[in-house]
Fold:
Amino acid sequence: MIRTAPAVLLALAALAGCSSRGGPAVGEAAATTPLPVVGSSGFPPTAERARAQLAGLEVAWGEHGGTYERSAFGATWSDATDAPGGHNGCDTRDDVLRRDLSEQRAGPGDPCVPLSGVLHDPYTGKELRYSYRKASRIRTDHVVALAAAWRSGAWAWPAGRRLAYANDLDVLVATDEAANQEKSARTPDRWKPPRREYWCEYGRRWTGIKEKYRLTVSPPEKAAVEELLATCP
Structure:
């Protein structure tokens, strides 16, 4: 009789228990520990660092605003990107929910998908309940909106860089639907979060994104971000 080494048996067992997406195989118990959600280390920058970054950004008025189309940034919530959170087997919206929801409950099936949780909305301070099986008031917001990024330099990017931007976890937050719609593609000179306690972090995130992707800022936008950063301790 041929004897199989224990290490080989363990490897075969591991393969048998995994699906192609990294979750449990059909008929197996689902993983209860959420998959890790990875963002850039040191993001958002500190207030001091953000002020230095803002000072170094190119100041220019937006261009090509009339040519923006959502399709220019590729497939919605694509995992096929090298941006933080990419290639982990989960779509980007699920990554954001798993990062931003508290009191999460996992269930059988896909470990990427939270079945329920609570969002403490950073923009408004509202507490929003989430359930996978019910309509949700939670939306996934690009802090620097795609149209705003387009006007400040993304119009000149190759397709792969735009896809990465649209799915970069550093760029995204889960937030209230009404606030998301009110904000739309507005820059901080035209919209700030209603919850003033978030102004410091909003300014840090905005500046960090602009610096990371070397996007320009308009003169009114820069002044408004300086106002946001002035609220930092």
The first strand starts at residue 102 and ends at 105. Residues 42-229 form one domain.
